[in-house]
Amino acid sequence: MAKKKTTTAKTARMAKLNARDKKTLNSLVGMADDVERFASRGRAPHIEIPSRSLSNVKYNKSRKIIEMGSSKNKRELFNLSQARTYMQTLLVGSGCKQLIEQGKTTSIRGLYYLLKHTIEGTREETFVDQGDCDPVIEDVEVALNALREELHVYASNRGAMVGNIVVNDNGDEIDCSRMGSGGYAIPSIVEEEVMQFVSCKADFVLHVEKDTVWRRFNEDKFWQTHNCILTHGNGQPPRGVRRLLNRLNNELNLPVLCLLDNDPWGYYIYSVIKQGSINLAYESKRMAIPGARFIGLRSIDYERCDLNPSVTIKLTDNDIKRANQIANYPWFEPKKRWQKEIKKLLSNGFKLEVEALISKDISYVTEEYVPARLADQDFLD
Amino acid sequence: MAANQRSISVSEFFAKNRHLLGFDNPRKALLTTVKEAVDNSLDACEEAGIIPEIWVEIIQVKENRFEVSIQDNGPGILKKQIPLIFGKLLYGSKFHRLRMSRGQQGIGISAAGMYGMLTTGKPVKIVSKISIRKPAHYYEVQIDTKTNNPEILNGRGNGLDIPAGEKGRNIMESKKIQWNSFYPATEDEEPQEVRSGTRVTIELEAKHQRGRGSVDEYLEQTAIANPHVTLHYRDPDQEWRTYGRATEELPPEPKEIKPHPYGVEMGRLVTMLKEMKEGTISQFLTQSFTRVSPAVARRICEGAGISTRAGVKKIGRDEADKIYHAIQETKIKAPSTDCISPIGEDLLIKGLHQVVPAEFYVAATRPPSVYRGNPFQVEVALAYGGQSVVQKVSAEVLDQLLDQTDSRTIRQFLVNTFDGIGNDAADKIIKEADFGSRQSPTKLNAEQRETLHHAMRNVKLSDGQGIQVYRYANRVPLQFKMRDCAITQTVMGTNWRSYGLSQSRGNLPSGPVTLMVHLASVWVPFTSESKEAIAAYPEIEKEIRLALQAVGRKLGLFLKRRQKVKQEGERRSVFMRYLAEVAGAVSDLNGSDREEIHSNLLRVANRVTKVADTKFDESGNKIQEEESFGDNVLIVEQGDPEEALKQRLLEGNPQQKLF
Ligand SMILES: Nc1ncnc2c1ncn2[C@@H]1O[C@H](COP(=O)(O)OP(=O)(O)OP(=O)(O)O)[C@@H](O)[C@H]1O
Ligand SMILES: [Mg+2]
Prior knowledge:
The structure holds 2 protein chains of 2 kinds.
Chain A: H1 2-13, H2 19-40, E1 46-50, E2 57-60, E3 65-68, E4 72-76, H3 83-102, E5 106-107, H4 108-115, H5 130-144, E6 153-154, E7 160-163, E8 165-169, E9 172-175, E10 184-185, E11 195-200, E12 204-208, H6 211-219, H7 222-225, E13 228-232, H8 239-251, E14 256-259, H9 264-275, H10 284-287, E15 293-296, H11 301-304, E16 313-314, H12 317-328, H13 336-348, E17 350-351, H14 364-376
Chain B: H1 10-16, H2 26-48, E1 53-62, E2 65-72, H3 82-87, H4 108-120, E3 124-129, E4 136-144, E5 149-152, E6 160-162, H5 165-174, E7 197-205, H6 215-225, E8 230-234, E9 240-243, H7 266-275, H8 281-288, H9 294-304, H10 317-329, H11 345-355, E10 360-365, E11 369-371, E12 374-384, H12 389-392, H13 395-404, H14 410-417, H15 423-433, H16 446-458, E13 468-473, E14 476-478, H17 486-493, E15 513-521, H18 538-590, H19 594-615, E16 633-635, H20 641-650
Parallel strand pairs in B: 1-8, 13-15
Antiparallel strand pairs in B: 1-2, 2-7, 3-4, 3-7, 4-5, 4-6, 8-9, 10-12, 10-16, 11-12, 12-15, 13-14
Helix pairs in contact in B: 2-4, 6-11, 7-10, 8-9, 9-10, 14-15, 15-16, 17-18, 18-19
The complex binds adenosine-5'-triphosphate and magnesium ion.
């Protein structure tokens, strides 16, 4: 009896592995083999991690996305400033192996808790907080050239979708036109294996920055009147949202239009959606949407929409610095309209949130602002 | 006026000028008495080729009165010489010769006896025995201060003869004559009989106080510089303490040499000429001095304008003066220097290690050199690290010290009592204890005493701790007139910062350092008769400086390396912390043996931390081969000081050696 129990437990632990999992496991084991080999020869082990800094990203002009360069950093165990992260890297590796073998996935927060403990004989924690763990997970991704979902880890869900599309999520068919006021929560893994597009009638995707704005559009049934898909990413969109937008654009040929705040942060979100992020440059080819367009808000909207001065927010020093940085990004630099846009923002000296349009009328944004831009096809590239 | 003129006896003169001989105050009188006797004992033993064993016993007779006895196992003194040695000033065997010895003037012990007599009226008591079979002699001697002649008080002016063996021991017992007939028993041997020796007992007005300038300090420092000596000390509390010898080997016998012409003073030259009964001036010069060949003698005579064949009888004051000046003008070879017997680097370290607990010891003995025609040799030993005396003091001893002190403030008490405590360190302790600076040490209540004790242990002194300089002349510690001494001045004039110690310009450096500097010479140039400080001859200062630099360089090397080791250890501990985690993760990932990986990684960590640190120095330059310390360095692994302390408390013996 007891024996049987153990065997079931064991089979439960060892889930069936698909080819992708096997490949990931192999590279994880390879990482450990390296350490073993070095140690047995009395040599100091290290892990090579592609550098994720700005200096190691290039803008690929023809593909119009940010790509990671080839420079790598050595992470050494016997280096005072790297010993701790080295240990953390291996811990993350062993945590992912556990997940893969058990056929489970967990959030980055879950992995953090899985690996967090006090180092024996010290008062030091393996990971102090989530922020101590997240970059290490990204390191493991790039070091093994594995996607996050291949490691069975996902980021927390953020972002929602409604509109004229039906998807199959892990076996469940979901009609996104019948999702009520909350919408369909976009999962963090939206790869083909997990999510398939069943049918789509929509003509385009409208991505808005924030939940609050998205609710306005959903309540006003904008996606019905304009036959589109409505998404938001709660600020900087998480990978699941970006990947979904990418698939909608790539596979269903839906244009992606973005409605973001008129401030450097809004510009940056647009830049990430369009070209990819510096931090996750290795994911650009799956995530970036070079054809995305920027609807607004624009710096000219204060005058164009005749807004009340009280809805403006003064630019901070940091905003000014960021705006200048963004203007100098190689993918913004040659775009005259963007340069004008940013220059105007700086000369305005203030920023505008999408919500500012409410001062005109509650539904001004859904009934006047966006329809007008759509009618004129007035977008920034 | 003329009627008032009369000659003054030497004894009378010194009775009025005690301070010249080191009897300025009762506390110092006690020390000087012990010192003169012990120095004599050591001289006598070494000259006779006997490994010295010395007993020092101090008994408090009443307040401010002590009886001091010093016994040695030396050759003893011939019966007829005893009264002269102990009852006549300026009688000795060492003045008229040039040979390295502790005593040189022939004043020491008789002055101590005279001081005792003047303050207590008691005679000096001497027991002396020259062979195991021959009778011992017992004398009670007094000095007639007017005539500078001895008076024998016992045996109707003849002293007392004590037969050898059991019979004699019984007589001594019945007459209350003190004499240690046997060496202390060892574990596997019957006590051995003391075959010969001298015991001198002096009763004197004195004051006993521990700390700087004390008998304790003198004995401890003597033990350091004389590692071939065993010293038994019974202090006024009747506690016995023994400084055991670190070697059975006697120092090589110093050779007696003739004086060198450059070293002779005008007055001495005249005396020497007078002593020479016949012969020519050339004969006088070649026979009386070293390095004077007939050719050199001729050149001196030419310079003085005197015929080489002139008879010494005819040389008057004027001619002597001319000869004296001619000597200074003539080029004469330096004397041979093989007449000095230094302690040697090995024994310096042994001796220092025996008495001063430290982490690092280094010694340097310079080759002999010459000042004013006198051969001399300088050696230096240095001990670094270890605990400071204040931190070792037990509560009971602190109580005693507080009871005995005559310092008016706690600050004064700390500075005067403990070596290595300067004003800064004292202030730190006072601040820690939260006392007023004017607080009197004697008025502290029990609770305050505890607070003080606590503060002394807890204040970190190593930063501000002044170094201790032990000065020696011919193996005798110099305990006073520190500032006037060429040794101290040279230590202060040396740049210790380049060797890793902190030092403000022109001061002693600070740090947990004990420095001993030994000047050995056939004639030590003291600044005064009390033999407390060495006069500053440039040749001597130069040799001291070179010796200091030699040990300083090695100290610097040690400190640098220790710093490196510390950094290395810190680095290593960072790595060590993560190795088990890494090994665990690797084993989880590829199923390898966790222990094996861990131990392999540990090995790499050890190697890496060694190599990584020796490869580059602070400025990132590659370090060549590790420079070796060379000989004459001793490094003592340091245990956990707190553990050592606990151990000592467990043993119930916190009151070991203190000063
Ligand atoms: N314990 C002793 N054993 C044998 N001889 C001794 C002893 N003590 C003294 N003497 C002899 O007595 C002499 C006189 O001693 P004293 O201390 O008075 O003078 P010193 O040692 O020659 O010179 P100094 O005045 O510098 O001490 C010594 O030179 C030595 O020959
Ligand atoms: Mg003497």
